[in-house]
């Protein structure tokens, strides 16, 4: 086997592992990591709108809100037409995996750890009366905490943000 073959096999293995991790996670699309995604000049905004994407503008800069309406489970339903930022985003776990600093199972363990905490925060939000799952996690927690200060929710959110910043955001 040549060095080129070995490199190609490694790239295939990495792509397969990344695909498994992404479809188990979805936090870059479900409103946990981000509240909005800014669209780029090369994005087909009319095409995205025809698909049903609601595009907003802030200082003339187009964006869409998270969670993405095209996310089903942890799978993008417009994968081939997804915006540029979606195409190019790699979370820290994927970057560490590509650099061979962690294994796929290490990354999956981090995903599971964060998903467990996210589920706890979601349950807390529901108990406090917020069922607006169409809004990002940050938006929901800000709204709830404004009206119902809750030390447990604030602590869970603090720990979650630390984990997201340390393990997923680039």
UniProtKB/TrEMBL annotation:
Pfam families the UniProt entry points to: CxxCxxCC
Source organism superkingdom: Bacteria
Record's protein name: Zinc/iron-chelating domain-containing protein
Organism: Brevifollis gellanilyticus
């Amino acid at each position: 086997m040549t060095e080129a073959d070995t490199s190609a096999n490694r790239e295939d293995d990495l792509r397969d592992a990344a695909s498994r991790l992404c479809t188990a996670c979805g936090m870059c699309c479900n409103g946990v990591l981000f509240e909005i995604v800014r669209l780029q000049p090369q994005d087909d905004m009319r095409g995205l709108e025809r698909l049903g994407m609601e595009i907003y503008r802030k200082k003339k800069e187009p964006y869409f809100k998270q969670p993405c309406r095209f996310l089903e489970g942890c799978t993008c339903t417009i994968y081939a037409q997804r915006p540029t930022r979606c195409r190019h985003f790699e979370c820290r776990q994927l970057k560490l995996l590509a650099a061979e600093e962690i294994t796929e199972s290490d990354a999956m363990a981090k995903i599971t750890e964060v998903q467990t905490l996210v589920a706890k925060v979601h349950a807390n939000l529901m108990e406090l009366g917020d069922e607006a799952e169409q809004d990002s996690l940050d938006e929901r927690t800000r709204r709830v905490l404004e009206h119902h200060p809750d030390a447990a929710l604030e602590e869970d959110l603090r720990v979650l943000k630390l984990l997201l910043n340390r393990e997923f955001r680039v």
